[in-house]
Fold these 3 entries.
Entry 1:
Amino acid sequence: MSSAGSDRASYGPSFHEPLKFAYWVPNVSGGLVVSKIEQRTDWGYDYNVKLAQLAENNGFDYALSQVRYIASYGAAYQHESTAFSLALTLATERLKVIAAIHPGLWQPGVLAKWIATADQITGGRMAINVVSGWFKDEFTKLGEPWLEHGERYRRSEEFIRYVREIWTSDNAEFNGDFYNLHDFDLKPKPVITDSRPHPEIFMGGNSTDARGMGGRVTDWYFANGNTPEGIHEQIRDVTDVATVHGRIVKFGVNGFLIGRDTEAAARDVLREIVDKADREAVEGFGAAVKQAGQSTGDKKGMWQDSEFADLVQYNDGFRTGLIGTPEQIATRMIEYKKLGVNLFLLGFLHYHEDVEYFGREILPLVRELEAAELERV
């Protein structure tokens, strides 16, 4: 355990809040690993409706609908994220759904209107994940310009400021380098709830640009899978920026969860996933994301220190270490929570079975450990 995790004084007020859980919606074919291993997971609507209902009843707070616009790296088919997110909320009662969206492919006022309507329909259960973009072909093949790394994040920050302004102001104004908004009154606006003044805004990243943007404008910062030390560094950097701007940002961490009754059985599954990796697709994905990240000035872009086995799971989910028995996984999650992690964004091999296993075997242990830790401190 890192020194930060073992320091009782480092526990913030957020430690008293129960860990939240989200799952990657498999609305893209190929599952969550770039491997030829059997996956009893399907990208279709009917499968995902059942999954959303299972997740809602097994402790999940959020579902993140990913977005791909063209076939790439083992993902031949893709359902669009905002429409799919709305469909899943209509099939559930409490689950909040986060739609991944790309500035540059969405005009922010149109996106804001779409989400506001969906939020009204669902009683305040919509959110967005702003993706600055790593896949050049998605832009250029649609005829849109591909900006360099820092400019993509500058555009995303303007996008977020614009969307928040139009959601919360009656005579919205915004003047930027990429977007402008003039005396605009969006009606109806999104639902205001006790837990949020507008749909929550998530983003993911690792670079210095991403950390700065997260601290300045987002509600949540998603980190790729990483060690406790790697996550602690990002939480510190984003929090430092947020503090300067008088803000509070919450943190989510990506993790691919393999829970089995024995550690050996879980490790065997991981070994088979990697052994059966689609090497051509993994290497193509690795080349694309590393090229995108290397365009950063300090080479801190996402995936820059990822190895082949890490890239078999798109967002470095193996590196978080949620692989083993229920007791091992629950203990690992509490270690991250002590560092300031508020949420785990989880992927699975066989979604229906693994989500039920999580709710039955792992989540109760997490809650027991949370209660015990709070009593201890």
Entry 2:
Amino acid sequence: MKIGVTKEIKNNESRVGLTPAGVFELVKNKHTVYVQTSAGEGSGFFDSHYRDAGAILLETMHQVYALSEMIVKVKEPIAEEYPLIKENQIIFTYFHFASSKELTDAMIASKSICIAYETVEDEDGTLPLLTPMSEVAGRMAIQQGAKYLEKPIKGRGILLGGVPGVPPGKVLILGAGVVGIQAAKMAAGLGAHVTILDINMKRLRYVNDVMPSHVVTELSTEYTIRKHIKTHDLIVGGVLIPGAKAPKLITRDMLKDMNPGTVLVDVAVDQGGCFETTKATTHEDPTYIIDDVVHYCVANMPGAVPYTSTLALTNVTLPYVLKIANLGWEKACELNADLRKGLNIVKGEIVYEGIRK
């Protein structure tokens, strides 16, 4: 199969779809890999690395799309890429269709095969291609939240870990999934007091078992959310419904109950966000303020640490890329139920239920 890797063109997105090691494995399996020049530079992988791994370097994104049967990306295609996508071409990337009608309509019109990383699902219900980026984003949520609590950036002026004689900051985490647990781990490591909410008691029991005593769990209800937002300094939204829009757990009217300078970090922004006041931002201009509450809603948080993120992503996507390349998408999806769940749009038809809602 002819596989293409283009340079990501979304704002401040420096990750790349495949590492040189991934290219090497595909070439070893007798596939042809086209890589756009400088595609990996932002992640620390240079053209010479890809050439040495067996890739064919092409100057433009247009050339890569034109020659490739499958495109392996990181982020969803943007408007500039829509006309380049061909009928029956496989696009394997994060799509998050539920948050963009424009993207959904464009991919329907292209009649391509859209396989979304975020809906590939194992037998046990885990999302293997979303997990590593959720791990990165969960950890970054605390890293960024701690920074934006600083007064020069309009935060409350609180050091999350506190110091002797001064109590630590308080972190409220909505969702005890991968994002929530990684955020709790980072916040606890800094010495913050952490409250994590979820509607799944099994998850809360797990958190209670593995986290230190200054991480406390509570069943998530509107009442408990309204209670805790009055006293917590950093609030992280990490709720995910696979392939569908995230629920709005914090509404606009709740902002008035928060202390001025409270920081909201919405890790669910790719799925529409779990705060009513969420609007996607970029690493170039990451925050905005509503009712004296700082919002950090960067849609590609892991893009800020592209070396780590690209390695973590290729670790999990490469086995699936190889299956598709070796067998073709139809046979690969027939034989692998987890990959089959990644099919979102096929030749102009929506085949994933979550997008229709």
Entry 3:
Amino acid sequence: MNTAISSTATAAAPVSGEAAQGSSPRSGVPADASRTAISVKGLVKHYGSMLALDHFDLDVHRGEIFGLLGPNGSGKTTVINCILALLTYEAGAISVFDRPMTPVSYDLKRRIGVVPQSVALFNELTVEENIDYFCSLYIPKREERSRLVREAVSFVGLEEFTRFRPGKLSGGLARRLNIACGIVHKPDLVLFDEPTVAVDPQSRNAILEGIERLRDAGATVLYTSHYMEEVEQICTRIMIMDHGRRIALGTANELKDMIDLGERITVGTLDLEQDTLGRIRALPFVMQADYDGRELNVVCRHGDRNLADLLDLLNASGTSTGHLISRPPSLNDVFLELTGKALRD
């Protein structure tokens, strides 16, 4: 069995009624900002001489899907392990559902589910037996456990694979089984650490839809991923961290408003003159403009008339235009500008 942030060690329990209603960019149902699911204040953690967490703060509201982003080595996994009381730390305080989290807070841990990045399964057990084993850590009654296992199997869409062993499953199906083992006992809080690594698009969509269903059923979700589009799709709020510190916090749109980049404009043209390109570069909203003989690519600051002013200049110069694309900044643009590196670095 792989035990990296094992869902057996800390998972609590698909979802009790104590959690608040959830929200997402899709549902529009607000999270309960007045009630805190996770509170981390001034957390300091060293590994030898290396500072992993530098007075780190985090507040996750009940009923939201909260995205935690950071490059490798930024401290994300350390934060998760500290929240789960799997690591000690030198300073700071952590509470879960308004109660201090300690290594012996077993009643709190029963309310937490963990889906680790490394698939944590018993290869000698079938799909159904794996889920039942993890459920048995919290639910002693076989009859109740049997019902919960059936619900978890249905939730992740593994009905046709209950007698399979993990080694016979595709990577995507193994990830789904990993999720079932982490949520079978119905947690109020679920921590997902890179749950879609190396899975096919169909399985990725199924996993993301499942996370949203957990939220809709009342769970709070803390979600880490290297895939920006996933985070933007499902997360209510997003924190970017690096070097153990918080860099930025907000909704996807709020984060995009924090950077200079406003949009990228691509115009298809075969006759752009150099003097016209020079005038484009001189426009006050233009950060960069390049032409490869077929396409004009312009990086713009925030502005309401960027596209209109650019087209006016092109038309006035007699430049013919073909296809036209205007793209808003991505979360990866935000991350790159705020941290100086790509998320996957």
